[in-house]
Amino acid sequence: MPLRSSEAILLDVYDLHEYDRIVTMLTREFGKRRGVARGSRRRFSRFTGQLQPLDKVRATWFEKEGRDLDRISSLDTLRSADGLTKELEGILLSGYLAEHMTEFAQESEENDRLYRLLDSAVEALLGGVDSDLVARYFEAWVLRLSGLFPDPFACPHCERSLNDVGAALDPSSEAIMCRDCGSGGTPVSAPALEFFLRISRTSLHDMSKSSFSPELLGECEEISGRVRRTFLQHELKSHRVMRETLAGLPAGGQRK
Q: Strand order of the sheet with strand 186-188?
């Protein structure tokens, strides 16, 4: 039963029996892992206060071949995500980011770029970067790192420059192509095309120095969402909950 240790970000935590919890985490060195934190629900547990989604921790666990669940030995907090749970939108967005990794990260498969993406997104949110920008940057990069959303420089069919002939999301919602090849698809505006190109060469920190209209970010959300839904064959539960909840708030409510 080898002992493993890695930097990790918690994705999901739920109760198991009377005293334990199941923890899903994205580790930097071992991909996505699931384990039991035994006794974590006890009043004086060593895990108390350390089991919150999107917390960054130093995790140590025992891995046993043939078992679906690891046995978690310790979770030492490196960065708390408490700042994201002070408002409703932060709670909803935290679930949205975490569910992306639950769906797209592979079990026991190292993916440092995916880990760093989540880490930088949480850091940006805690630093006060606009949550809509963080979400649009994050969701597009998850698709890109999963091989689903390449840089939209040229049409994948005719190879013409999309900047020259215009772009559209093809009817199957799987790729951005030129408007001729994607006839019947959803047009993609020039600003949206530039946004997707820009994130491929610009850090989230540098993107935050510019302003983007709600209309542009809304268009980018729809495009990424359609690509994601086509691949998964379903929508993320957290996305539906977030949109339905925020849409039901009065004007000037929890939205920043």
A: 176-178, 167-169, 186-188
